[in-house]
């Protein structure tokens, strides 16, 4: 039986992370320029290789930390890409993850071997190999999860206003929501806790700040809460 292992063709396993950020108005994508692509205009996702002593999740966490210094962020396994010709250099299977962070908390990432930069999701450079397909897949998953779970809150500061939250969901779903209807539904969900604080510097009256009520997130998820208006038209 052990002889069968030696007869198999070996292949590499890569971990590629689609890292979404939000700058207060637009959804962002963190891309890296490694300096090894033939074209100067081709960028890639954050990625690295699985080591023999690691699980997939451990490898994804390590790669992300090594490249960006980021840790303790939302990171979820997404899909597997394994077309034989996806990497022209070596037979490689890629396991994708998507991460959510508040992009205003992080500047560009640089090292001696690569340069990383935030790009608008709807206006970014050409991507390496099948990385655009990976991004499209991640956007679909993000929209599906954000419709039923408070996953999008990972992209906001810990304290936020209802208008900020609406802008986030408009960016995720690439659509506009009715202001009054969105506010009514999100407040009725029980997901928010109103704080005795107001956002300063944007208007004389100011808008009240809220934070996520983590005690109600499980209840909302179990009831398939439609807190995004007209979600049946979006997912």
From TrEMBL:
Residues of the Nudix hydrolase domain: 12-142
CDD domains the UniProt entry points to:
NUDIX_NadM_like
InterPro entries per record: NUDIX_hydrolase-like_dom_sf, NUDIX_hydrolase_dom, WH-like_DNA-bd_sf, WH_DNA-bd_sf, WHD_NrtR
Q: Which Pfam families match?
A: NUDIX, WHD_NrtR
Top-level taxon of the source organism? Bacteria
Q: What is this protein called?
A: DNA mismatch repair protein MutT
Q: What is the lineage of its organism?
A: Bacteria, Pseudomonadati, Bacteroidota, Cytophagia, Cytophagales
